[in-house]
Structure formats: C-alpha cells, structure tokens
Design a protein that fits this description.
Blueprint lengths: L4 E5 L7 H5 L13 H6 L2 H5 L4 E6 L3 E11 L12 H13 L6 E9 L8 H15 L4 E6 L12 H4 L12 H8 L3 E14 L1 H8 L7 E3 L8 E4 L4 E14 L3
Parallel strand pairs: 4-5
Antiparallel strand pairs: 1-2, 2-3, 3-4, 5-9, 6-9, 7-8, 8-9
C-alpha cells in the first residue's frame, strides 16, 4: 500500500459512505438512466457493504472507491452473465434466494478528479481481489468498459479488443490495467447494459436532435444509438469486455 493511503470496506467504516457516493464519475448523462442499475445500485450499500471499497488519504478523504458484488458463476463462458446489468441483478437475487456466490464481480472503479493519474484505479482493483479472498471466493470477474472505445464507436468491440500496442499489451489503457494485474480476456459482452428512453429523453440526455429514425453516433457511447421515431424509442446497448482475475487464497 502506498504511504498515506488506507483502504476500508463500508462494512468496516460505514461513515465513509457519503464520501464514496460523492465521488464524481465521468460517464455521459444517458449512462445514469439504466433501469437495472437504478433498481439495484443502492442495495450495494445496504446489502453488500463489505464489498464496497473506500480508498482514503491523509485525514480520511475518500480519493477513490470500488463497487463489487458477490455472485454465482459456474466458471464457463456460457454461464457468464450478459454483462453488468445481469451480474448486478444476479448478485442481488442470489442473496435473496440464499444461493452461495462463487466469485466477486467488479462493477465500477472510480477515482476523484484531483487524484487521477496516480495509479489509484489499480489499487482499487487489487482491493476488490482482496475482498474476494477474504470472503472465500475463487476469482474476480469484471465487465470492463474500455476507456478509449468511445473514440471508435463504429469499430465492433470484437475487433477493438484485439488491438495491441507494439509491446503486445492492449491498445486500451483500462484493459491494460486489468491485464497488468493478471487478468485474462474471457469474451465480449455485447449487451452489458441496455438503456432505453423516449426520443425527447435522449435529446435531453445528449443535447442532440434526432430528426429521423436510424443509428446515431452519440458522444460517450461505445457504439451507435438506435432511434425509432414511430415507436418514440431510443435504445443503446453498451458493449463491455468480460475479464477474469484469478485470486490467491
């Protein structure tokens, strides 16, 4: 652990919840309107505080946080959840049905604006893996949202994940962070999150106008958004990348 940093779960320090919740994300507005996330996200704090991580500095300022959830996964690619929406829902339902989890799934790592560029995202991921170990779970999986994919929205994720640098590491910096920590690629999650809204809602979320039905490149989206004016419906299917982190018990 770097000098001056401390890591706690919210089960250990419930008083840090406000600091964790106050960390600003960089997601575009439409990403905050996923129905599954809105239904289940607050349960991370009430039902799974031992899986919510706060990285603190100095006098206790929360500088980074990690959100994850225990869930059942049978270890096969066929048995993987469809993505973030499904693993979040699965984890919540597994608890309700008293089904024993087998893995931790990372959901989100977030670093305060003033503290970016310090490698704190790696510290958050390592802390998530430690939570898996402490809870006797066999691995960590993660539906990863590649950082630079929004700059290449017309490139299919299946091709994007194969892009490499000269040193053989992934082109995408967030995928590189995972790989450097020992993660392995499992498969693309083409419908990790599904966000729907009326045309008016999408215009409010994006500041754009959608004068006819069709596909639109929207700032912040990893692939185009589909608009159907007759149905008054816009649909965005967020592709992610499933990564597998082994853990040492």
């Amino acid at each position: 652990m770097r000098q001056g940093l401390s890591i706690f779960t919210l089960a250990e320090r419930p008083g840090l919840e406000a600091g964790v919740r106050s960390l600003p994300d960089t997601f575009p507005e439409f990403m905050h309107h996923d129905a599954v996330v809105r239904r289940y996200w607050d349960r991370l704090f009430t039902d799974f505080p031992g899986f919510q991580i706060a990285v603190c500095e100095g006098g206790g300022e929360v500088v980074a946080a990690g959100h994850c959830i225990p869930a059942f996964w049978d270890g096969t690619t066929e048995g993987l959840p469809a993505g973030l929406d499904e693993v979040l829902e699965r984890g919540a339902r597994d608890t309700e049905e008293e089904r024993d989890p087998t893995v931790v799934s990372a959901l989100l790592a977030i670093v305060g604006h003033a503290h970016r560029g310090r490698g704190l995202s790696s510290i958050v991921l390592v802390a998530m893996k430690s939570v898996a170990v402490e809870n006797g779970l066999g691995a960590m999986i993660a539906p990863v949202r590649p950082t630079l994919k929004e700059s290449y929205p017309l490139t299919p994720m299946e091709r994007y994940v194969r892009w490499k640098r000269a040193d053989g590491l992934p082109f995408d910096p967030w995928l590189r962070v995972h790989e450097r920590l020992g993660a392995k690629f499992l498969q693309v999650a083409p419908r990790s999150m599904v966000i729907t809204g009326s045309v008016t809602e999408w215009e409010e979320w994006t500041g754009m106008r959608f004068p006819e039905s069709g596909v639109y490149v929207v700032q912040g989206a990893l692939q185009p958004v589909v608009m159907d004016l007759e149905k008054d419906l816009g649909v965005y299917e967020e592709p992610n990348v499933w990564m597998y982190h082994p853990v040492e018990k």
